[in-house]
Specification:
By secondary structure, the protein is mainly alpha-helical. It has helices spanning 55-81, 87-110, 118-144, 149-158, 162-178, 196-203, 248-260, and strands at 37-39, 44-46, 183-187, 207-208, 227-231. The strands form two sheets. It has a three-stranded antiparallel sheet with strand order 4-3-5. The relative contact order is 0.10.
């Protein structure tokens, strides 16, 4: 697996000027051996061997990273509870891991740090601040002796859960929505416990992308283990490279003209009727 980015501790205001992470590249002409590259037209990552990664591979990649963050949170919480480290050291470490986790998740969703917009940075800041408040409350409960060690560890793991997976999914949804993708559906993670909100939405199948719920915005909250699949359209294919993205009418006219001329087109011939304008 490619190497995960390390946090620099300089604060999120500097993110926009940072270089893309080594595991994410947007330029399809770059050497694939340098790491994962993002193909904006297909909204998929290309692996170092040149093959496309599945969306599930990207999710599993992030889940592995988040499990590492959860394990570190648990170990540090145990040390803090037992008095091996002080409150300032504990909270500084938590803030650093939370910051790195939210940045990594959002970057994977949108195609790399260089692809992040002000909207992405605002979303990172919002969820990072919320998780940081929870971490400070947890530390206060430990100091007051009002929480057991087991419960403190359990809560610390939640801070690398639903909110960070939500960063990945919302980033994926935003960039696809900008490029005309129309539908999404909630998928229930196998083996996980699901609330009635998740079950009801999953039962509806494909929905307009702007009607899809958010990871963690359910009764499961931070324990939400669902994910979303997205598709461009049930009836249309993703436009070819070089066609202006929003101009679907022009795209259809070009395809129909070529079909009438007898040109063999792969991947679009069955998607566009030959009659009409």
């Amino acid at each position: 697996m490619p190497e995960l980015p390390a946090g620099n501790g300089t604060g999120m205001a500097l993110l926009a000027s940072q270089e893309p992470d080594s595991y994410v590249r947007q330029d399809e002409d770059e050497d694939a051996s340098k790491g994962w590259r993002y193909n904006r037209r297909r909204h998929r990552y290309r692996l170092p061997n040149g093959r496309f990664a599945s969306t599930q591979q990207a999710r599993e990649y992030l889940d592995g990273y988040l499990r590492d963050v959860q394990d570190r949170n648990a170990r540090e919480t145990e040390r803090y509870y037992r008095g091996e480290i002080g409150q300032d050291e504990y909270l500084a470490g938590m803030r650093q891991r939370l910051r790195d986790g939210h940045i990594t998740a959002r970057a994977m969703g949108v195609g790399g740090r260089s692809a992040m917009s002000r909207r992405d940075l605002a979303a990172i800041n919002q969820h990072y601040k919320a998780d940081t408040r929870y971490a400070h409350r947890l530390a206060a409960l430990v100091e007051a002796g009002e929480i057991s060690e087991a419960e403190a560890v359990r809560r610390s793991k939640l801070y690398a859960g639903g909110r960070m997976r939500r960063q990945l999914d919302q980033g994926m949804r935003d960039v696809r929505g900008e490029d005309g993708w129309e539908q999404g559906r909630r998928v229930l993670q196998a083996g996980a416990k699901h609330c009635s909100t998740c079950l009801n939405e999953a039962a509806q199948g494909w929905l307009p992308i702007n009607r899809c719920g958010a990871i963690g915005a359910t009764d499961c909250q931070a324990a939400d283990r669902c994910y979303f699949d997205y598709r461009y359209s049930p009836h249309k294919t993703v436009p070819s490279r070089g066609i202006p993205w929003p101009d679907q009418d022009e795209y259809r006219k070009i395809v129909r003209r070529k079909l009438r001329q007898g040109v063999q087109l792969r991947g679009v011939a069955t998607a566009i009727p030959t009659t009409g304008r």
